[in-house]
Amino acid sequence: MPELPEVETIRRELAKKIRDKTISGVKINNAKVIKEPGVEAFRRGLKGEKIREIIRRGKVLILQFRPDKFLVIHLRISGWILYGDEAKTARVVFKLSDGKCLNYMNQRLLGELRLMRDYRDLKFIKELGPEPFELTLEEFKALLDGRKTKIKALLLEQKLIAGIGNIYAQEALFLARIDPRRTAASLTPAEIKKLYTEIVSVLKEAIANRGSSVDSYRNTQGESGGMEKRLKVYARKGKPCYVCGRPLQKISLGGRGTCFCAFCQK
DNA sequence: AATGGGACCTGCGCGC
DNA sequence: TGCGCGCAGGTCCCAT
């Protein structure tokens, strides 16, 4: 799925396009993605609701209608939101009162929609770690302290830090020149500081470039991001390292593909 | 606590 | 051309 920068891009675009618009109807092409309440209650509960706020928490997108009514949108892998005309391949179409549609795209059907009284009651959200931009260096240090897990796996733990996924974990480690196989506890204070800086920096760069479109992800206009051209290691196995020119390696860490430069990342 | 595997899904690109 | 396989931005759950 879209990671923090992609979801933040969607949030910003939607804030301009759909705030204060009303949902006039919901077309459900695949009920599998609706996790709560039931399909009919979901449809009924949304009809006539005005969108007041568009919120992001980690990789989760949330539409707020009332103080006690929220649509929680988890894109997971392959999810994105297309604004405009109704899309044939949309899993769910939210029709707006001005004739436009919010199409919930999700090829792999792993995404989840929930209509809830409070998104903060969702277990996943409750347990989510702090937003990277609100995390201090000292707090980041404390998260790594004593942890024997590999640093790359740790960065993906949403309970520790919200929003980093498999692209930006690899990118941040490359930028910080840290081998993804190192244990978290083995990082020196200088390395922790560098990694912290690079995480914040790469996420900001990605947001500024409207995210990475490496597979199905598109922005709300259906356009590619721009960050994919700037990625240094993700999906670049065998290609030359931008720093030393040696071919990048690919290994599996925690069941996820991981590209890195075995020479530059120590 | 850490790691590995599988599950959930669809569809793409690759080698044969 | 067609088929089987591996793989894909996420997360959960179980076993060791």
Describe the fold and architecture:
- This protein is an alpha+beta fold.
- It contains seven helices and eleven strands.
- The strands form three sheets. The protein has a five-stranded mixed beta sheet, covered by helices on one side.
- Strand 3 (53-57) and strand 4 (60-66) form a beta hairpin.
- The radius of gyration is 19 Å and the shape is elongated.
- The mean pLDDT is 96.
- The structure holds a DNA duplex (16 and 16 nucleotides).
The count of strands amounts to 11
Residue windows where pLDDT falls under 50 for at least 5 positions = none
Shape: elongated
- What is the distance, rounded to the nearest whole angstrom, between the alpha carbons of the first and last residues? 29 Å
Strand content: 15-25%
Strand order of the largest sheet: 2-9-5-4-3
For the largest beta-sheet, the strand count, sense and barrel status come to: 5 strands, mixed
Instruction: Figure out the total of helices.
Output: 7
One letter per element, helices H and strands E, the order comes to: HEEHEEEEEEEHHHHHEE
The structural class is alpha+beta
What is the rounded Rg? 19 Å
Helix content: 25-40%
Give the overall pLDDT as a whole number: 96
